[in-house]
Amino acid sequence: MKRKRFASKFKLNPFIDPNPKRLKAITKANDNISPIDEWTDLKNWVEDDESVPQASVMLHVHEAIKVSRTFFHVLLSPDHWLSSTHLHAITQLLNKDIDAHSMTLISPYVAHKILKKDIANDTHWGGDKFLKKQEWTSFERVLIPLNAENKHWVLAEVLFRCRLVRVYDSMKTSRTPYYANELCVRLPYLVRAMGLCPDD
């Protein structure tokens, strides 16, 4: 008996599944974009030498990010390490589809700023306009990608209301507690600076 086929519940984005046949099927009804042509143009541009004119392009996610060919070379090479710029672009894209009332994924640049703050001087936190404008007060969970010593990525999940931090490390080492602790010791200062728990 032949197995009955059901239509997929998921619609793939043509830009993340650049198979010509799939692209045509997905975008047939859309005359405003041509992902096949755009993918081909991008692929040709990435393969050009760095000396070829237009050494960089603007990557439009939530905001415009200027990136070079190297940015895409790294993405297309499985043995290359993703930089903060890559993770920043990824967080911007993911945040488009995240329910803003439950959780948010912050940029690694924000995490870097938090980790660089001096915990000995509390006044620096309260006067930081950049941190104050981060709208986290309504989120149940905040996901923070940590660039550990520019060598390894660790994800921290912060549950402000429960006062809980979970750390996800794909390569758990003796340094994992250190990465988590660097964030945890700064969270009370961050919470007060953002006015999340003014009484704490």
From TrEMBL:
Domain of life: Eukaryota
Keyword Protein biosynthesis appears in the UniProt entry: no
Annotated GO biological process: proteolysis
PROSITE patterns found in the cross-reference section: ULP_PROTEASE
Keyword annotations of the record: Hydrolase, Protease
Domain Ubiquitin-like protease family profile: 65-200
GO molecular function, one term: cysteine-type peptidase activity
Keyword Hydrolase set for record: yes
Gene3D superfamilies in alphabetical order: Adenoviral Proteinase, Chain A (3.40.395.10)
Pfam families: Peptidase_C48 (PF02902)
Similarity field: Belongs to the peptidase C48 family.
Protein name: Ubiquitin-like protease family profile domain-containing protein
Lineage summary: Eukaryota, Viridiplantae, Streptophyta, Embryophyta, Tracheophyta
